[in-house]
Structure formats: structure tokens, C-alpha cells
Records
---
Amino acid sequence: MAVNIIDNKLFALHTKNASYVLGLTKEGLVENRYWGKRVDELSDFSDISSSNQTVNVSGPQLYREECSSFGGMRFKETSLKVTFADGVRDFRYRLAEVKAGEEHLELVLQDICYPFAVHLHYHVYEEENLIKKWRVLENRGQEPIILESVYSAEYGLSGTGYETINYKGRWGAEFLAHSEPVEAGKKVYESLYGLTAHTVSPFFLVHKHAEETKGDVYFGALEYSGNFKTVIEAVNCDYLNILIGISDTDFAWTLHGGESFETPAVYAGYTSDGFEDMTHTLHHFCFRHMMPQVLAEKPLPVLYNSWYSTTFDVQCEEQIALAERAAKMGVELFVVDDGWFDGRNDDTAALGDWYADEKKFPEGLQKLIREVNALGMKFGLWIEPEMTNENSRLYREHPDWIYRYPTREVLMGRNQYELDMSNPEVVDYLIGLFDKLLAENNISYIKWDMNRYAAEMGSANYDKSQWKELWFRNTQGVYRLAEELRKRHPHVEFEACASGGGRVDYGAMKYFDEYWPSDNTDAYDRLYMQEWYSYLYPIKYMRAWLTDDFGMDQRKIPLQFSMYSAMCGSLGVGTDLNKTSEEQLETLAGYIEIYKQIRETVQLGDLYRLCSFRDGDIHAVQYVRGEESAVFVFLDHERYGNSWYNLKLRGLKPEKRYCFELNGKEQSKTGEFLMNAGISLILKGDYDSLLIRLKEVK
Ligand code: GLA
């Protein structure tokens, strides 16, 4: 049974491998008594407490609370702060109601003086080993209540000695991970960019000496793409407190009488089997519950994107010529990036004017789309819906549709302004516009970009007393636009891009079919980025392109290494095909053909991070799906004449026999052998690489 309750005082949430146990303190506060490996006998938890009695502190600070609130002898960062109409700023509650179903638990915390309640919601995904948590804050009275801090969830882990991991990214260097112990004070991961952005990601990942295949790992991902905040605090009462939710740095929400506010959800889990098990748990869950289901189980097509070939200089005939060459390689989706719409010749103009530029496309987009379709490919287009330029028809007609402070000159990012997506009229306008674009043209894919961070959150549409609500309202506006377009065009594939990987999160996953993880396509850098990306986010969502040499790092890497690096995700090509010889086209076609044969295994299979450049000379990832497996191995530089490596595989069936080709020889070994003794590889020189394909023998 996923939910077990004793006397409305003890509550257990069980997944297949873990238990999450709550109880009431003697003051009636909801506390976390246990989070770890599954323990079925709930009564054993009845006489324990989350508080460490040896600590010289009194009051709620002692407890690992499920809903700590500002005030009332708490000196840590708390998960809720409200101001009642009379200025009182703490929340004192009693557990007023318990609602439980087979997989759901709701605890209603009612303030003892004020008509205000916090609903703690839990949904247990027993098989998937995850628990969803979120909160609903309800004003049950007449007078307004100001919400100042509304985290989605709180988690307490007993004891000390934990390490926390998150990214330390930036544009072109997304998903580089950083790990550090939290022995004292707090570690805050926060986005104030108006979206998830490139630096840190909306999740928590805390562990104790965990490794890839062993060790305790606690993790949770927030379903939100706006300003978020994660606080990991070593509280002076022998526990680690974790808060995750909407950032409270510039947040205030007026909850009028009778209104409720629902926070984004967090999907959290525990494993004793290390990071690999965490990854598998999250990846499986994403396929079943997070991704738009229409395309979830379908592998993504191989795409060609002409951005790096033509940048803003998009011309119909030239695009047709590129499409012809792309088709020869076996590309399935041809994408025109930025530069196709009215007056867009550089990044200073035209955002918002989403009509084909008549000079570039005298017959509209139709001609190009027809040609692309006739070549057997689908057609895709780049848009940046949330933006406008000063030099655009949209801005000239609606100067009040952007975020701005009335007395200030509006600041620019990449020469552009951010549309006020908190204004329903703006969102409705965009729905109409893009619906028409998709209805009138045979467009199968949209790359939805977002290239400036948010600032100056003032809106002509809201009273200034509500401006701290705009960050959240903006994200809701973005979701509404995406949701409506998806509803009207369910078969269109949507890619989330924000100057590269600025919108990679579980909130975006509900509306998009893939991410563009980075504008950095250097095959070697990408291996590092792809590795840490894969901890939380699914491989299918990781678009990876082959591009020309001398990109971001001015580095020349052999084609096979670059191609294999891109084939570790959902393959795309962005090289300048005008400069590609017929012979090179044929070579590329060969790789694309191989990729098509293994893509279900790569995109939909289980990932095993076998070894990493962070720890040694070679880097290897393995994908397993059903009877097939694909292993990519990379060497950056040969060292001291050493070219032999032993590699142990994972995820195979020990008793089965697998055939594969290696070192020019057909071989057959048992899963047991391959996983324990391993295979011997030869890799030499600079940037060598291998692809090994294994198939179960019947
Ligand atoms: C952003 C994206 C790129 C490309 C350009 C076009 O930088 O991340 O992939 O689409 O915009 O302007």
C-alpha cells in the first residue's frame, strides 16, 4: 500500500524501494521522521522524534518540519512566509484535516487564529519510486493575505556530512557540475533571470559519499521554468534542511478572500544505489509522466539546421539548395533558424513580426516547404515568441506590451525587449498569430528560442501593488501559449531553446519534446556537458549537432569523434553543406544511417555512464534497450604510448550471449563476461573513438 496512516498521527508514503514517514511533534507540527530504504512497519516510528534532544535550542527549530514558516522561534530559512492584514507575520497551525487515497495524501494545516490554510499534497508513484509534493495556500476569509515566500516543498535529512551537487554553468558551458559538502550555513541555488537560465538548475541532489552505482542519494526536480530557489541548509540541530520552489527574492502575491495559490510541484526520490539508479528513475518517470505523450515514445528525427551555414542571410533558393544536400545525407527534418521573418537581417530588428520576409521568400514559405516535403523531409522553423525589437511593427503598434518601469529607459538584452507575457491580451495575440502560421503552413517542428533575461518587471496591465507577481504570471503566460499551441497542433514537435540550454527543466518538459542544451557544439566540450545533463534530464531531449570545426573552442576534431559525440543524443547536423564535398556527404550519410539503426536504443533506452574523462583517459557511455546495446568510447589524447583499455559494460543480461564486432573481429560473449571481465579496446592518438553495437543472441 502506497499510503499508510495510523490514527491521523503517523503517515507513511511507500514507493517500491523507499519510505517517507511523517509524524506530529508534541506541539502538533508535521515533521519528517524518516526518509530512506523502505520500512513497512509504521508503528515502529510512533515513539521517535525528528529532534535531537542534545541540542541547546528550543522550539520548532529543533524539528525537521514539513512546512516550517517564518516566525515562531525558527531561525533557519523557512518554507513559508505570509503577512496577515493586521501585520502578523507568522503561521501557527493545527492539523485540521487528513484526506487520503491509495496514492494520495493531503494534510490541511489550518491557522489557529486566521482563516488561512496550507494544503500539503503528496502523490506517490509507487512503481516509479518518486513522490510528488506541492502546496495549495488558501485564504478562507475576506481580508487579503500577502504571500511572501511559497516554497513547493521542504525535506529534512537527519545528521550531517552531506554533499550537494548542482550546475555551475553559463552560456556555452551549460551543465558543468559542482559538488561541495554542506557542513555549515546554507547553499543557495537560485535563478533571478526570469527563466531557469544557464547557471544552476531547479533541482536538489544531495548525497553521502555516493558513487555511480552505490551510495545514498536524495534528489528532487521542480516542475517550473521561472525564477526558482533551492536552499540546502545545515541546521545547527543536526539536520540538513532542503527547500525548493519559486524564488522569494522579488515575490509577493496578494491572496484575496476566497482565493487559493497552487505552487509548482517537486518530484523527489531516494536511492541507496547511487547516481545511475537516480538517473534511471528520473528518466523512466519523464517518459511516463512528464513528456507530452503524443511524441514521448517516438524517437526524434535526424534534423538539419541551416543556422551555422547562413545565419541571418536566409534566402529561399539557397535554403532549397541546402535542403537538397541535406536530403542526400538522409536528414528527415529541415529547419530554418533565425532570419526568415519580415525585416530580420541581424539581431536588431523584426522580433514580433512573424511573417515571411517578402524579399527573401517572394512566394511566402510555401515554396520552400513544398520543396523540402518533396525531398521527403519535414519542415521546421525558429521562433522567439516572447520577444520584440524596438524596430518592429509589433513594438510600434504596442509599446505598452513590454515589461518596463514608467520612469526608466528600458534596458536591452541582445537588442531586444521582453513581451509582457503576464498580460493575457499579449498571450492571446501570440496564440492567434502562431496558430495561423502553423495552420497555413506544413510545419512539423518549432524551435522556440528565448534570448534575453528578464528585468524591470513592471506592467501597464497591472497595478503596481501586483508587480512582484509578474515573474510568476510571466511563466504562466509562457506555459499557456505553449499549451494552447500544442492543443491545436498536437503533432508539431516543439524544441525548448533559450540561448542554448537556458530552459532545460521539468516545467518546460511538459510542453516541449526536446531541448537545445547549448550553443556550444564542440564535440569534446559536449561530452562533459552531456554527462552531467544526463543525471537529471533524458537523453532523447538532448539535441546534439555535428557542426564545422573551429567552433567555440577553435579546435579541430576528427569527424568520427564529432559524429559519435553527437550520436550520443538526438542527432542533428549544422555544418555548412555548401562547403561539403559529395564524398563528405556520402560519409555523413553513412553515419546517419548507422544512427537511425541505433537511435531507439540511444534516445529511448537506459543510459550507463561507464567512465568519464573526469576520472581517467577514456570516456564511455552505454545505452541498453531490449536486446540491443550501443557503447560509445572516446579517447582525448594518447598518453605514454598506452593504447589498450579494459571496459566493463553494464545493464546486460548475465546469462545471455551477445554478438558484436570489435577490433575488426566478430565476437560473442556472455553478459556475465562483458560486465565482469569486460572488453579490451584499442584507442590511439588524439581524439580517437569507437562505437560498439551489441545484440543478444537468440
Ligand atoms: C540563439 C540560439 C541559437 C540560434 C540563435 C539565432 O542564440 O541559441 O541556436 O537559434 O539564437 O538567433
---
Amino acid sequence: MTLIAPSILSADFSRLGADIKKVTRAGADWLHIDVMDGHFVPNLTIGPCVIQSIRAQSALPFDVHLMMTHPQNYIHDFAQAGADYITIHVEAQTEIEKTLFAIKKEGKKAGLSVKPDTNISRLIPFLPFIDLVLIMSVEPGFGGQSFIPQSLNKIAAVKELIGRKKILISVDGGINQITAPACQLAGADVLVAGSFIFKNSSYQKAIQTLKEGK
Ligand code: DX5
Ligand code: ZN
């Protein structure tokens, strides 16, 4: 069954705690938290102190997506704040393997993300060390963008690449009632959705629609 991870980037930040409780009750499987450093991507979002303060609002796994040029300096802080999955980008300016080990050393699951223009062959050296691949189906940086159709081939190719390894495939960006079933058919295990869920009058209905996609 596909897991649904609402991205709180599209939540109402003036009532973040209430929105998180609401989406948790609505049947979300994980909470996706987008961390942007204003350098790896143009946007700035949230850091460990916000994650720490929302940790008590939901028992769901926190899926923390680090869109950061230098994630290595912050792994301990995000782990302490309450992250369960910590995903870094393969395009980050860091020693990828060392940073993945730092995540594992904290006792957390490690993810590796690829931007739309990045060749998935760059994942190969790190497959033995990761629990999740996060395929970006939009350019990282902002919610509410349109799904890039070529992402479907990428999902299928990553699925083939990981073979029988226990690595989850997550897809992030432009997920809605049309793209969700296509991603599921291509092999996605987790769907990250921001605007489709938080801009819907019923979070429950939106999550149900994404889950029942195929
Ligand atoms: C984009 C973020 C996404 C974003 C998805 O950089 O990584 O998680 O919130 O938003 P939607 O679902 O609106 O495309
Ligand atoms: Zn994300």
C-alpha cells in the first residue's frame, strides 16, 4: 500500500500545530517537512527548532527533506529535534557517504534525493547505505508546481536499480489525483503531497483519493 506523506510546506503556518493534528487524524502515514536553506534552493523555510516544537503534535514518522548545500553540519540537530527519516540531496556539496553515515549513527533512516535533471546513476554508489530514494518530480524550492511527466520513467528506472534491496521510493512534487495513480503504477511506495492535501476542504478525502489511486 502506498504511504501518503503530507508536506507541511502548504499548511497554514499561523496554526501549524492544529493543521498537523488535523492531517494526522485524516489518515496521513508520515509528515513531510521541507527544510530550505536559501542557497541550495532560493527559498527559506524551517529549521530544527520548529520541528522540535511540532514533534509533540503528532506521533507520525517525521520525514525531513533537507534542501541544503551543507547538510552535514545539521544532522545531529535534526535528529535531536525528532526526525525519523533524514533525506539529503545527492547534489549537495558534502561528502555524501559520510553524511549518510552520520544519519545512521543517530539511529535514523537515511534518504537520498535527486533533482529532476540529475541522472539516477549518481545514486548507485550510495544504495548500500540508504533506506529511501526521494525522486523530485518538480524543481525543489516551492510547493504548488506541476508534475514533470518524465519523472514516471525515473521512478521505474530507480525501481529497477534498487532491485530487491529494501529501499523505499518516494516521489515529491505535483502529486494530485491524476499523477498519484501513475506514480503508484510506476513503482512509488511513498507520495509526498502539499497543496493537493492542504488546499483541499477535506484532508481526509484528499488523502483517501491519493491512496486509492490505482
Ligand atoms: C518542493 C518540496 C515539496 C513540496 C510539494 O521543493 O520538496 O515537498 O512541498 O508541494 P506540492 O505537493 O504542492 O507540489
Ligand atoms: Zn519535499
